[in-house]
């Protein structure tokens, strides 16, 4: 037992040295990353999180209308389709926010006016959004797309807050990089 | 180069000069049984001096970047406190011989250095901080010395020096390999890459909520 912690520390250092050999980051976020972040932001702002689209995907009125048509087959097809769309929405929101988050982390490490409070709030929003997305995905799988409208709203708001903050980072970097 | 990496060259100078002095004393003045009494103080002093090299590593990695500067300060403080704790704890245990005292202190120091280096490299990789060729070489060489010494002294304390007689060359070999790495990586000066600082952000989180997008989501 006396030997194990010391050998573990040596092994840990060995692994990090190995990782250091492979470590070759760019000195600033690549133009590709910036373009990817811009696209993710635009797709969130103008598409995925637009209120009418979110309301359309999760609209209970649609369900009531199809149910009122008294066709079980049509209703089950509708539910399956809507479930698929809702799941795709959750995944795409999460994926794009992750793209923005990665860009923000990479960009902000060199920021001279980094504020711990703002970063902590942003990180908290990010965690809330990820948890909301996971829970929402499970609920949609288990009980359909119309079960948790409040969680959809909370996920949208968190994503919107994150987008608002990360738009600053994207804009700050865009001013340094030539436009394409 | 010496002005840019002062701690690295200081420890290199002290280690080499000390080794030469001890070897000459051993060869010409027949130290014999008194060799251990000479060797261990020298070994501990050079270990303490070589630890200062970590300051050069910090200066060009975590301290070089705005958002990791505070972490670097905290790490320095923690390392200092932990090193003091190792010394006090070893003195409290009061080992029976200088050899045992030396082994305990060196093992403790190398253990701390291993964690310190792993934390520094881990944070640099996590934050994607660029590390130049010179600093990378210093880290790799010193990391190798720390690993070989840590394993050797931990095993020596566990099984006894008598059973490790055939492996006495390991710490020395680690130093030789490190020296070759330093020779190659520090042959000429390579400036550490310094990324451009980001312009100050125009909008804060407070203003963020005023964007049309948030308004829309809250509507």
Task: Explain what this protein looks like in three dimensions.
- The complex is a heterodimer of chains A (180) and B (219).
- By secondary structure, chain A is mainly α.
- Helix content of chain A is 80%, strand content 0%.
- Chain A has helices at residues 4-22, 31-48, 51-57, 60-68, 72-108, 116-143, 149-174.
- The longest helix of chain A has 37 residues, at 72-108.
- Chain A is extended.
- Chain B is mainly alpha-helical and 219 residues long.
- Chain B has helices spanning 6-28, 35-51, 53-60, 69-93, 98-126, 133-159, 169-185, 205-208, 212-218.
- Chain B is globular and about 55 Å long.
- Chain B starts with 5 loop residues before the first helix and ends with a helix.
- Residues 197-217 of chain B have low confidence and may be disordered.
Tally of alpha and pi helices of chain A:
7
User: What would you call the shape of chain B?
Assistant: globular
Spell the H/E element sequence of chain B.
Answer: HHHHHHHHH
How far apart the termini of chain B lie comes to 61 Å
Q: What's the Cα radius of gyration of chain B?
A: 23 Å
- Distinct helical segment count of chain B: 9
Give the fraction of residues assigned to helices of chain A.
over 70%
Mean pLDDT of chain A: 80
**Whole-number average pLDDT of chain B?**
76
Largest protein interface? Answer: A-B, 54 and 55 residues
Strand percent estimate of chain A: under 5%
**Beta-strand segment tally of chain A:** 0
Distance between the termini of chain A: 60 Å
Instruction: Label the structural class of chain A.
Output: mainly alpha
Label the overall shape of chain A. extended
Biggest beta sheet summary of chain A: none
- Would you count the extended β strands of chain B for me? 0
Computed CA radius of gyration of chain A, to the nearest angstrom? 22 Å
How is the main sheet of chain B built?
Answer: none
